[in-house]
C-alpha cells in the first residue's frame, strides 16, 4: 500500500469475535493510519451474534415482523463499532463509531433485505479530513422514512464496498478468517488452493453457489462500480485474493472453482396439461410470494401431459409446496411432491466460454463415482448439477481433481 491512500477495511464476525481480537484489529488499523493513510473501518456483529439474536426472536414468535427483526439485528453491529472505536482510542488513535444512519447509508424500505440507494458521505468526509478513523456499522442503513433497515445476511461486505465506491477509496479490504478465496471449500477439499485473483463474475457465481467468503450482492456492487476487493485473513499476513476485472490469464483457465450448496429443495408437479399459460400461472404465483426459483426442467410430454421439476432454497420449500398445492386444481396437475435431500454442485470459470467438452468432463467425473445427476443447468461461466445431498462432498472432491485444481502449478496454465 502506497502512502496517503484512503483504505476501507471490513472486519467480519470472527475478526471482532472477542476482546483480544478487537485489540489485534485495532493494532492493525493503527499501523495503517500511522503510515499516513486514511482508514474507514466497517465491522460485522461479533461471531454468532446475529444468529443468537435471530434465535431470541424465534423464541418470542414464529413470525417476527421484519421491521422488528431489523431493529434487533442492528444492535449486533452497534456493539462492535463501539468496542472497536474504544480499542482504537486505547491504541492512541482518534476514532469515532457511526451507525449506518450516521454513516449516511440510505436504503429502500425492504426490511431484512434492503438495497442501498445512496450514501451521504459529508460526515465521514469531515471526520476523515480531521484525521479521525470512522468505524461504521456494517449491514445496516436507514430508509427514506427513517426506518432502520438491514442489507441481508453477510451485508457488512456490501456496506464496505458501497462506502469504497462513494468515498472513491484506493482500496477495499475484506478481512475474514480465511486467507482468501479458494478453488473449493478447504474444509471439504484439503488440496484446495488459494486463488491470487478471481474475476467479479466468477466470484459472483461462487458466492451465489454457496461459497461463503463474500456476499453475492457485495460482489455485484463491486463489479458495477469497479471496486477491486481484496479478501484477506485478519489472523495471518499475506496478499489474499484480489477480486477484479477478468484478464487473459484468467480466461486460459477452464475451471476456477468448485462449489456445493445443500440449501436446496426440489418440487415436482406431475401430469400437467402441456399448453401455453400453465408454467406462467404456476411460477407467477411463486414469484408473487417473493420466492426465487432456481433450476426448472420440464419433461417431454406424453398424451398432452408433462411433469415439471424446479428447485428453490430449502428455507422456501414449505411455502412453495403450499402454493403449488393450491394451484394444482387450477392448472390441472395430478400431484406435487417435495424432495429436500438434494445439493447443487457447480464448476465455475470464465475460461469455459472458450473451451469445448467441459460439461462432458464434469458428467464423466461424477459418473465415475456413480453419482447420479438429477438436474443440470448452465450459464456462460458455470455448470451446475443437482445430485443427492449425501454425495455433495464427494462430488466436490472428485470435480476438484478432475479439473486438476489440486495441482501446485495449476494457477498459471491450469487445466486447459
Ligand atoms: N452480522 C450480519 C450477518 O451475520 C452481517 C454480516 O456479518 O455481514 O449476516
Ligand atoms: Mg461475512
Features:
416 residues, alpha/beta, Carbamate kinase, VC0802-like, 2 domains, eight-stranded mixed beta sheet, six-stranded antiparallel beta sheet, 12 helices, globular, binds aspartic acid, binds magnesium ion
Task: Give a brief rundown of this model.
With 416 residues, the protein is α/β, with parallel strands linked by helices.
Walk me through this protein's architecture.
The protein has twelve helices and 18 strands. It is an alpha/beta fold. Strands 3-6-2-1-9-11-12-10 form an eight-stranded mixed β-sheet, with helices on both faces. It has a six-stranded antiparallel β-sheet with strand order 14-15-13-16-18-17. A four-stranded mixed β-sheet has the order 5-4-7-8. α9 packs antiparallel against α10. The longest helix has 25 residues. Aspartic acid binds next to α5.
Terminus-to-terminus distance: 34 Å
Quaternary organization: single chain
CATH topology of the largest domain: Carbamate kinase
Alpha carbon gyration radius: 23 Å
Q: Characterize the main sheet.
A: 8 strands, mixed
Could you say which overall geometry the principal axes of the C-alpha atoms support?
A: globular
- The count of strands amounts to 18
The appropriate CATH architecture of the largest domain is 3-Layer(aba) Sandwich
Number of domains: 2
Strand content: 25-35%
> How would you name the CATH homologous superfamily of the largest domain?
Acetylglutamate kinase-like
Helix content: 25-40%
Low-confidence stretches: none
Arithmetic mean pLDDT: 94
Structural class from helices and strands? alpha/beta
CATH C-level name of the largest domain: Alpha Beta
